[in-house]
Design a protein that fits this description.
Blueprint lengths: L7 E5 L4 H12 L3 E6 L2 H13 L5 E6 L5 H15 L4 E4 L14 H22 L10 E4 L9
Parallel strand pairs: 1-2, 1-4, 2-3, 4-5
Helix pairs in contact: 3-4
The structure holds NADP nicotinamide-adenine-dinucleotide phosphate (NAP).
The site of NADP nicotinamide-adenine-dinucleotide phosphate has 24 residues, from α1.
Keywords: Oxidoreductase
Protein name: Dehydrogenase/reductase SDR family member 11
Family: Belongs to the short-chain dehydrogenases/reductases (SDR) family.
């Protein structure tokens, strides 16, 4: 894992669950990790906790709603300016909803589609700039799959 030390990673959904675990793991291997989430304060708390534990990596908390393209553009422009680019991108932000096709309200479906479908589309232009064939380039989208039988 030494080859990742000092490299830059971006993790979405970093405030909880899978994304938080990925952020901690990458930072503990010396990476500079930008944690994107709406609840930026939770990422900041994790950064402080990791620092107090002597973590070798750095954590930066950036507020972004992935369903809003302008948030993504702002976040990546900050990353470009402050850290110079991205080596590893892990998209863990998503929402789970039990709405059914027949009974679910359109508004609920719209939210699921905005976050789980449009979010990755907004992110893809940025993540596609990562050279996945380079030794340090990695890109992963982690998403929930749900099937409805109606
Ligand atoms: N946990 C598991 O074992 C597991 C297993 C298989 C699949 N999955 C799937 O993996 C996905 C993540 O699971 P999880 O357990 O990590 O969920 P989680 O604990 O609910 O975390 C979801 C993350 O997504 C972020 N998020 C949600 N909406 C967002 C938005 N509009 N913009 C930016 N960030 C947003 C949340 O951050 P903010 O609210 O702060 O924005 C949070 O950090 C889900 O789809 C889940 O179904 C999870």
């Amino acid at each position: 894992m030494e080859r990742w030390s000092g490299r830059v990673a971006v993790v979405t959904g970093a405030s909880a669950g899978v994304g938080a675990a990925v952020l901690k793991a990458l930072a503990s291997h010396g990476m500079s990790v930008v944690g994107l989430a709406r609840r930026k304060h939770r990422v900041k708390e994790m950064a402080e906790e990791l620092q107090s534990q002597g973590c070798t990596g750095k954590v930066f908390a950036v507020r972004a709603d992935i369903s809003r393209e302008e948030d993504i553009l702002l976040a990546f422009s900050w990353i470009e300016k402050s850290l110079g680019g991205v080596d590893v991108f892990v998209n863990c932000a998503s929402i789970t909803s039990n709405v059914t096709l027949i009974e679910g309200r359109t508004e609920e479906w719209r939210r699921v589609l905005e976050v789980n479908l449009l979010g990755p589309l907004h992110l893809r232009q940025r993540s596609s700039q990562i050279d996945a064939s380079a030794p340090s380039g990695r890109c992963a989208h982690y998403q929930h799959q749900q099937q409805h039988d109606e």
